[in-house]
Amino acid sequence: MTDFDTALARLLAQANPLGSEVVALEAASGRVLATDLKARGAAPRTAVSAMDGYAVRDVDLSILPARLPIASVAFAGRGDLPVLPSKTCVRVFTGGPVPTGADRVVVQEEVGRDGELALFATAPGPGRHIRAAGSDFEAGDVLLAAGTRLGYRALVAAAAADVAALSVVRQPRIVILSTGDELAAPGQSLETAGSIPESVSFGVAALVEASGGQVLDRRRLADAPDQLKAAARLALDTADVVVVTGGASVGDKDYARSMFAGFGLDLIFSKVAMKPGKPVWFGRAGRELVMGLPGNPTSAMVTARLFLAPLIAGLAGRDPAERLAWRDMILTEALKPCGDRETFERGRRDGDGVAGLKVQDSATQKALAGADLLIRRRPGAPGLPPGDMVPVLDF
Ligand SMILES: Nc1nc2c(c(=O)[nH]1)N[C@H]1C(S)=C(S)[C@@H](COP(=O)(O)OP(=O)(O)OC[C@H]3O[C@@H](n4cnc5c(N)ncnc54)[C@H](O)[C@@H]3O)O[C@H]1N2
Ligand code: MOO
Q1: Which of 32, 87, 241, 366 is in Cβ range 3.0-4.6 Å of 169 for a Cys bridge?
Q2: Which InterPro entries match (predicted)?
Q3: Chain segment 241-282, per-residue pLDDT in tens
């Protein structure tokens, strides 16, 4: 049996970004840049006005009041640079090009009008209201470095670089195989004696997607070795990571590992000294990674959260450590002593603190829904009173 930290270290050694691919900007949300993103052009390309008003030379306002004819109008989108003849002004709007020679834009609230004449009665304030060409960025500037996750703010910068497509880390493709004769599609289990709704793959798929992966396929499989082998072959042909649920333990029909044996499965760890989730295993079959999750739903989700989420994040080019951000939180209720296996107790937020759930059964599905935190407990740790600090992870 491998201890938890060793298993995690071995897993993280495999959690490296996959290759890159080019995607349209529209499809880039949440992806990770594979290369630096440089601006095609400067922003702004010419000096533009920051306000609606009148572009003027200071010398033309040296005697006040001043009356200046409006030489032309510059809305945002005007393609040529306006000319500012001496002793005139140019009517400008926010984002419109400011003529060369203009010292400032006087905001329109400070300017009167008499037909095509603009009337300047008072000295303008200190603001010039001009955004210089290239003041945001110059052509060729790196706007986003390789490794940047394209969240909603970064996407604005990416679009501003004036590119239509981006080189991003390839999204890991995942196939989930749920094994067990007893499994039925939700909505159909009551119709067959002995069957139960297959629940785990729904949680695993959502966790994979939240971690940056793409679920290609999800299959329910009976405990029939030939069928399992065929499904393993198909999954390895299409996926980067195959996740198998159930059949991880020592039962007579626990085939999860053996179904990959013919495809060169090399185990990286198998059985971890943790509770719940002891039967979790991880390996490589050729270029593909395979993870076996225990069938008990809470065990499956705890191990998926602790091992699968950082693995997918790392393959997707994200920092796996983001998915392992343990922090200390105050206990609001006492905790019992920990047994001899490292334990990931399910907890819930309780005000600013955390309380362990009453139900700690690894098969529970109802209590799982309310378990928003994991509390990490070292083997042999003593019971703890309310007020003590414990390490927690968002679950
Ligand atoms: N003699 C031993 N028995 C067991 C051991 C052991 O070490 N020695 N380990 C126990 C532990 S710990 C766990 S966890 C379970 C996990 O075993 P498996 O991975 O082989 O899981 P199954 O036997 O296939 O299923 C366990 C349980 O979960 C239900 N299940 C399975 N898949 C799903 C699914 N996709 N959706 C919903 N429910 C599922 C299944 O019906 C079983 O009730 O083994 C212990 N036994
Ligand atoms: O350790 Mo199992 O994964 O709890 O029931």
Answers
A1: 32
A2: MoaB/Mog-like_dom_sf, MoaB/Mog_dom, MoeA-like, MoeA_C_domain_IV_sf, MoeA_linker/N, MoeA_linker/N_sf
A3: 999 999 988 888 889 999 999 999 999 999 999 999 999 999
Supply the pLDDT for residue 249. Answer: 86
Average model confidence (pLDDT) across the chain: 97
User: Ligand 1: does its nearest atom lie under 6 Å from the Cβ of 204?
Assistant: no
User: Which residues are within 8 A (CB) of 226 and not within 5 positions of it... i.e. 6 or more apart?
Assistant: none
Query: Within the chain, what is the greatest distance between any pair of CA atoms?
Result: 99
* Nearest Cα to Cα of residue 379 among 30, 79, 1: 1
Write down the pTM of the prediction: 0.90
| Ligand 1 pocket residue status of 177, Cβ below 6 Å | no
Name the CATH topology of 327-394.
Beta-clip (2.40.340)
pLDDT score at 393: 98
Distance 159 CA to ligand 1 centre (A): 49
Q: Specify the higher pLDDT residue, 254 or 152.
A: 152
In angstroms, the CA 188 to CA 192 distance is 8
Which of 1, 220, 249, 306, when mutated, tests ligand 1's pocket best, judged by the most ligand atoms within 8 Å of its CB? 249
Residue 277 beta carbon below 6 angstroms from any ligand 2 atom: yes
Separation of CA 280 and ligand 1 centre (Å): 11
For residue 246, which ligand has an atom nearest its CA?
Answer: 1
In eight-state DSSP terms, residue 103 is -
Half-sphere exposure of 305 (CA within 13 A, CB side): 25
CA of 113 to the centre of ligand 2 (A): 80
- CATH H-level superfamily of 20-43+136-169: Molybdopterin biosynthesis moea protein, domain 2 (3.90.105.10)
Tell how strand 142-144 and strand 53-56 pair up.
Answer: unpaired
Tens of pLDDT, residues 44-63: 999 999 999 999 999 999 99
CATH 3.30.565.10 fits 4-17+171-323, yes or no: no
200, 275, 281: which to mutate for ligand 2, most atoms within 8 A of CB? 275
For residue range 191-245, list pLDDT tens digits in order: 999 999 999 999 999 999 999 999 999 999 999 999 999 999 999 999 999 999 9
Which of 65, 64, 54 is closest to 106 using CA atoms? 54
Q: Whose C-alpha lies nearest to ligand 2, atom 4?
A: 276
Is the CB–ligand 2 distance for residue 303 below 6 Å?
no
Decide: 270 in ligand 1 pocket, CB within 6 A.
no
Q: Torsions phi, psi of 243, nearest 5? A: -110, 125
